[in-house]
Structures are given as structure tokens and as C-alpha cells.
Write a structure and sequence with these properties.
The complex is a heterodimer of chains A (about 70) and B (about 170). Chain A is an all-alpha fold and about 70 residues long. Helices cover about 60% and strands about 0% of the residues of chain A. Classes of the chains: A mainly alpha (about 70), B alpha+beta (about 170).
């Protein structure tokens, strides 16, 4: 029984595909940000930041990264 | 406040306390980048403040309200600590806050405040640095995150407004 070669982007040589995916993501985020007022962007960013710091604090607490990671 | 556990920035609380303390400030740093169109996370709140005794007294009231202590040694700051400092980094019940004095024009407090946008943060009025000022700060600092911010802001706004920065640009 023959096995099909597995398709993956996680190998060298897919720069063009990644460029398309990255552009798509950037355009999506720009559209989202454009639809918001500056106040709404700050509120969204604040939630995002609090979640990010909470996650980092948990990682520091569990000993997986040093505390200085907070300032890297 | 203990600094053992970093907490995320609570700009709503920072703005409410700064306004209540009568502090003049402009929000700069990561939150100003977000307000201007690039949504990303940040670990702290950054405030630009003017020089002067009135500001120093307002900073002291502000720090008292938010139970701030200096990040590096947990010290409760005094009027003398504040009067001599061009930069104060504190831990507080609203997260870590950097308080900075303005630099040379166009990064002085008055110019940045004039360029600022007026926004509502958690139902409180706040001034947030405008694009022109952000570009100046980011060009000056030029850390990897600053360069990324400039790239994303340019993708969002198109060509960025660039003003000469003393000491950075050759003809200033």
C-alpha cells in the first residue's frame, strides 16, 4: 500500500504560502481595528494584556521560565 | 503591594486614579500604539508627565491612591524621590506603571499633549499620544518591539509622520 507524502507548511520552501497567510491575518486584524474607536481599541488591548500577563505569571510560577522573562 | 506576582495593566484604574489625583499626563507606550490602530498586548501602563512642583505633588497623590511602590525595591516613594527622578517605575494595584518626564521637542510634554487624542478609558477622559508623537518615541527607542510597532502602524495608516529628533537625526 502506497502512502501519500504528507502535506505540511512546517518545512522549508513554503515562504509564498506563509506570506499569503500572514497577509490575510494582518488584513483581518486591520479591518477589526479600523472598525473600533480608539477607546474600544484600548479596552480590547487591556483585556488582551491582562490575559497575556496572567498566562506569563502562571508560567513563571510553575518554574518553566525565569521571572526575568517578564521584562524581556 | 507585593511584587512577587506580576499583574496585568489596568489602564482604567490608572486613568481614574490619575484624574482623581489631578495629575496631568499623556498615555504613551503600548496603550497609545493600540489606540492608534495596532492591537497588541503590553505589560505595563506608561504615562508622560510635565516637570514642576505641582506635577510632583500630583504624582505623590497618585502613587498614594494606587498603593504604588518602586518596582526594584518595593520602596514607598517620597517627595524627594519623585522630585529628582526623570523616570519612575512602580508596582501598584493597577499593575506596573512607568512615569516619565518629557524630553526635548518634539518629545517634550507640551508638544506631545498638543498632539494627543482625547479618548474615554473606562468612562474617564484621558489623553493618549497621537501618531506623530508615537513615531518619535519609537524611532528614538528603536527596540525590536518599537520597530514592529512602526511597521504595523505604517501598514495601518500608510506613510508615517516623521519629525526630526534631536540627537537622532543628523540635521537637528
Amino acid at each position: 500500500m502506497s502512502t501519500q507524502p504528507r502535506k505540511t507548511l512546517l518545512e522549508p520552501g513554503h515562504e509564498a504560502e506563509w506570506a499569503v497567510l500572514n497577509r490575510e491575518k494582518r488584513e483581518y486584524h486591520q479591518r477589526t481595528a479600523r472598525a473600533m474607536t480608539p477607546s474600544e481599541r484600548i479596552a480590547r488591548g487591556q483585556k488582551l494584556s491582562q490575559q497575556a500577563v496572567k498566562l506569563l505569571a502562571a508560567t513563571i510560577r510553575s518554574g518553566h521560565v525565569p521571572r526575568r522573562a517578564f521584562w524581556s | 503591594m507585593s511584587q512577587d506576582e506580576p499583574s496585568g495593566p489596568d489602564l482604567d484604574g490608572v486613568v481614574a486614579a490619575a484624574n482623581a489625583a489631578g495629575l496631568q499626563y499623556v498615555v504613551i507606550g503600548g496603550f497609545s500604539v493600540m489606540a492608534n490602530g495596532f492591537l497588541r498586548a503590553t505589560k505595563d501602563s506608561d504615562l508622560l508627565v510635565p516637570d514642576g512642583k505641582e506635577t510632583d505633588a500630583a504624582i505623590l497623590r497618585f502613587f498614594d491612591r494606587i498603593e504604588a511602590t518602586r518596582l526594584r525595591d518595593d520602596k514607598v516613594l517620597t517627595a524627594d524621590d519623585i522630585a529628582d527622578a526623570h523616570h519612575l517605575r512602580v508596582a501598584s494595584r493597577h499593575g506596573i506603571i512607568d512615569v516619565m518626564r518629557g524630553g526635548l521637542p518634539p518629545l517634550d510634554y507640551d508638544t506631545v499633549a498638543e498632539d494627543a487624542i482625547e479618548v474615554e478609558v473606562g468612562s474617564q477622559p484621558a489623553r493618549v499620544a497621537g501618531l506623530r508623537s508615537i513615531v518619535g518615541f519609537k524611532r528614538l527607542a528603536s527596540r525590536p518591539q518599537d520597530r514592529r510597532d512602526l511597521e504595523e502602524l505604517e501598514a495601518f495608516h500608510g506613510k508615517l509622520p516623521i519629525e526630526p529628533i534631536p540627537g537622532l537625526d543628523a540635521d537637528t
